[in-house]
Amino acid sequence: MIKARNVSLVYRDGTVALDDVNLDLHAGGLYYVIGPSGSGKTSLMKLLIGIEFPTTGFLEVMGQPMRKRETAKIRKLRRDIGPVFQEFKLISGRTAIENVIMGMRFLDIPMNKAKELAKNALVRVGLEHKAFTLVDRLSYGEAQRVAIARAVARRPALILADEPTGNLDHDNAVKIFRLLESFKDRNTTVLITTHATHLIGGCNADALLCVEKGKISIERRGGRT
Amino acid sequence: MKNIGYFLREAGKIIRYNSVSNIFSFLGTGLILFLLGLVVAVWGISSQLVVLLQQEAEISAYFDKLPENPEDIINSIKSIDGVWNVSYVGAEEARSRMENILGDESYILDLFEKNPFEPYLEIRIHLDKIDPVLQSIRNIKGIDYVRDNREVLEQIKGISRALEILGYLVIAAVSITTLVIISHMIRQGIYHNREQIKTLRLLGAPDRFIGFPFVLVGFLLTFGGGLLASALITVLINRGYAQLGGAMPFIPLPPKDRLLLGIVTLLLSGSAALGILGSLFGLSSINKENQG
Question: How far B25 CA sits from the closest chain A CA (Å)?
Answer without folding.
Answer: 25
